[in-house]
Amino acid sequence: MPHKNPLHIPLRDIPPQGKRYEVNETHVWEDPLREFRMDCRLVEAPCMQLTILPTDEGWLMRGRIGARVVVPCCRCAKDMEITLDEPFEDYVQRPEEGETLAENDFAEGDDHLLLEHGALMLDLGAIAWEQFALALPPTPICSPNCKGLCPHCGADLNLGPCSCPKDEGDPRLAVLRGLKVEKS
Ligand SMILES: [Zn+2]
Ligand SMILES: [Zn+2]
Fold first, then answer.
1. How far is the CA of 156 from the centre of ligand 1 (A)?
2. What is the reported pLDDT for 1?
3. pTM above 0.85?
């Protein structure tokens, strides 16, 4: 029976020596980026290569995610292009004997595994999105020397100092000043 989503692959079709897959359908990444309103733009379609190897207990997945994206610097908010090229390894546990899986729904505690027409399927799209999200740097910085934005006036301090009074820049210093006043 044909299945609707070509990225849902039947696990019983994977031979004992493993099988290689490639995912480069842009919607796999574009849809969740839009849905989660993430500040991240794809320069070109990312690509995930993956080898799935059956084991006694489940399936071992070894692969690589590659992408070129534009993200804002977390200090100065300036857009910058970064290249992702990350190897990964993941594992999907075979459902316990007697564990009931709902048709067309993901297995409990595992959003990669689902049942379609009685066949166990692996959602390659979900894996490709997860590995992409894991490969994104949590705090991208345009340069290790990036001075960021002034917390008061928002000026880009990489372009030069702003006209805000210097000693108001650090709230911790303001607290110290307050303590000194109390003591005197
Ligand atoms: Zn920056
Ligand atoms: Zn300022």
1. 9
2. 46
3. no
